[in-house]
Each structure stands twice: as C-alpha cells, then as structure tokens.
Design goal:
Blueprint lengths: L3 E6 L4 H13 L3 E4 L11 H12 L6 E5 L3 H7 L7 E3 L3 H9 L5 E5 L5 H13 L6 H7 L8
Parallel strand pairs: 1-2, 1-3, 3-5, 4-5
Helix pairs in contact: 1-5, 2-3, 4-5
Length: 148
C-alpha cells in the first residue's frame, strides 16, 4: 500500500503544491490534498492544522506544508504534540531536518525557492532516514515532560 502524505498550502504555495503532488505520485506516494485550491488570500493556520492533526493522531507518518516563507505554517504545525515541522530552503537543510531532527512535516517557502528546487528538497526529505543515536535523546527533549 502506498504511503499517504497530506499536503496543504495557503494561496502563496498553490502552484508549487500542485507540482509536488505530481512528483509524489510519480515517486509512488498517495498525496492527500487538504487545500487551498486558488490564489485568493486565505489564512495559513486553516491549512496547517489539518495536516499536523493527521500526523499528531498517527493517521500518517509525515506531511507537507507550503506558504510564502514557510514560517507561518511551521509555527502552526509545531503547536501539535509530536509534530516536528521544519522549514527547508535547500536539499541540505531538508536532509539534516530528517537525519538529525526526525522532521515529520516538511515546510517549503514557496515565495523563496523555485519549483525545481522545491522538488529537489522534497526528494531529499523523503529519502533521508532519521539517524537515531544521540539525536533520539535530543528529539525526545522537544516535547514537554519527555526526555528530561
């Protein structure tokens, strides 16, 4: 069974979201589009929370969010227990977010990167495993009351 990956954006990330959905399909994943679908201004938390909730509840292993800078989506998603949303603007940052921080939500700054760079970041993030080891101890300390 293909892994379902929810993906959502605000108005600034719609075009890149559509490209990433096609890439996910080509890579064998099942993208679940949680909106938005147009260029009309919307509020990013309305799209960040549904993706983060799916990760928080364990319905999916990971998700993808897009907005202009990536910051707003990351702020909202990281309010959810167990969600580690990382803004990545290069494949190297995406790699390290997975390898060192076990990021389970990729956040892309759609106004700051090209579509091709977005695809490279996505592929690197999907392909990179969590290293564990000393990083597990550090990740455990992110959640209040855990790992301390």
């Amino acid at each position: 069974m293909r892994e379902t990956i929810p993906i959502a954006s605000d108005h600034a990330g719609v075009d890149l979201k559509e490209r990433l959905k096609r890439e996910l399909l080509a890579l064998g994943y099942a993208p679940l589009d949680l909106g938005t679908d147009g260029a009309d201004s919307v509020d990013y938390p309305d799209y960040a929370h549904p993706v983060a909730e799916k990760v928080e509840r364990g319905e999916v292993q990971r998700g993808i969010l897009l907005c202009g800078t990536g910051l707003g989506m990351a702020y909202a998603a990281n309010r959810h227990h167990g969600v580690r949303a990382a803004v990545a603007w290069t494949p190297e940052v995406a790699h390290l977010s997975r390898e060192h921080n076990d990021a389970n939500v990729l956040v892309l700054p759609a106004r700051c990167i090209s579509e091709d760079t977005g695809v490279e970041i996505l592929k690197e993030w999907l392909a990179t495993p969590f290293a564990g080891g000393r990083h597990s101890r550090r990740v455990a300390k992110i959640e209040p009351g855990e790992g301390t």
